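Deliverable D4.2, example record:
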Amino acid sequence: MRTATAGLQDSRQTPDISPQSVFLAVFYSFVFRLLSFQQLESDLAQPYLQHWIGSDRGFGDDVLRYSLCGFDVTGLEAIWSRAIVP
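Output generated by the structure prediction step:
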């Protein structure tokens, strides 16, 4: 999963938290059916999740919102097309 998401980008300039980490955090929230970014922010305080998404620290829901608003969908489309087309 990390290699597939390595090329993801968003509109932030020199972000402290990579777009890949943001995407993996949101993917985690989707898989575990978290109801809000506040719940995800609470989970991101756990070192195991920080390690899994490749972040050296937790981050807040404001980072999630700002990153996702400027996400470059080209990278997501490439991941999606590789997942569907064998």
